[in-house]
Amino acid sequence: MPPIPITSFLISTLSSTSEAICWIFILAVTFGILEKLMPCNRGQLSWREISSVTDILYWLIVPIFTRFVRIAFIGAGVFLLFHGQSDHAVRDYIEHGYGPLGTLPIWLQAAIIFIVSDIILYWTHRSFHSKALWRFHAIHHSSPKVDWLSAVRFHPVNTWFSFTLVDTLMLFAGFSIEAVSLLAIFNMFYSAMVHANLNWTFGPFKYCFSSPVFHRWHHTAESEGMNKNFAPTFPLLDHIFGTLYMPEDRLPQEYGVPGSDIPETFWGQMLWPFKQR
Q1: Are 207 and 223 in contact, with CB atoms under 8 Å apart?
Q2: Per-residue pLDDT tens for 161-185?
Q3: Are 251 and 210 a contacting pair, CB within 8 Å?
């Protein structure tokens, strides 16, 4: 695969940043209104000073890092799977998903990716709760006030070896880039929704789809739900593997990682997992 010209990369990066700003505005309006009308935790402030600035930087900066890593993952996959084949053949496979899966209708490809990705992400999520990887994932749990803005507070290492890696695997499995991109947009909005300060449980469908209350229990202290409710979208996975936690008599209240020294600033959080214990 030919190298990406630096000019094209910079233009693409600027476009990505512009899109992130647009999404922040759309989500701020949407969930700003909903959180006022149907809050899970009343009195939680929408703007959290340093913490909110940190989360905005995650929206704007981490995707730039991730672009480099995605290119590296794709390059590694091309080398392993298509070594010796023409650049044209490789590009066709990546962009159009040649093969049995790539010939399926886009909606069906997206549905399959949706289910398969959720299963993989359930297990990668659990792996980041292990002792070896927890310091990277602890960054996501560090916000004491969980809302839609904190949805992307993931250390880049956490992002790369879960979401970015899964997207790359779906491309090399033969799904089209259109189908993968379609799910990426949906997942961004859905992730913002489940992190929003909303009292939604989805009622009779609460074990079918992840709700804000379902995921907020995951952000509570370790003594409660921190090591429960790992599924991004389908709580059935937590039910099957014994990690479901949805108390009927109360709502989640306290969030964060008590006793940790995780800094509030963006760059401080970037470096924290690498500090000596």
Answers
A1: no
A2: 999 999 999 988 889 888 998 888 8
A3: no
Q: Say how far apart CA 41 and CA 251 lie, in whole Å.
A: 8
Q: Where are the alpha helices (DSSP H) in the chain?
A: 6-37, 50-82, 87-96, 106-127, 134-141, 156-159, 165-172, 177-195, 212-218, 236-240, 266-271
Closest CA to 223 of 264, 191, 262, 252: 252
SS3 255: strand
Closest CA to 33 of 202, 197, 252, 150: 197
Position 79 scores a pLDDT of 81
Residue 241 to residue 224: CA distance in whole angstroms? 17
Q: What is the pLDDT of residues 29-79, one digit of tens each?
A: 999 999 999 999 998 877 777 889 999 999 999 998 898 898 899 888 888
Could you tell me the sign of the dihedral formed by the alpha carbons of 135, 139, 141, 145, in that order? positive
The CA-atom distances, in angstroms, between 171 and each of 64, 66, 181, 212 are: 20, 16, 10, 30
pTM higher than 0.85: yes
Q: If DSSP codes are grouped into helix, strand and coil, which group holds residue 220?
A: strand
